[in-house]
Amino acid sequence: MTNISSFRMTRKMAEKAIREIAADDEKVIFSTHALERMTQRGINPKDVADILLKGNVTTDPVKGKRGGWECNVTKNVRANRDATAVTAIYDAKNYIIIITVMWEDLK
Asked: Comparing 72 with 66, which gets the higher pLDDT?
């Protein structure tokens, strides 16, 4: 019997999937928590789109409780401040959920 290892999404694969999916803003879903944190932290939807389309995946994607590949995407968005969008990629269904957003310098 042959050992079959389970599929692992790499950072590079995650970046490619995120950029392709996020090109259509209707495929990006914001959790209530993310919307609350965006308001609280002064991060707007345009910042998040910029993070998704041009940022770097900074954590190895891991399978989340609901089946999506979760990872952090980080990019400098303004005044030399890096912001991170914690994402869940549902590539089979072709959408992304934004779990939360944060400033990296305030961790």
From this structure: 72
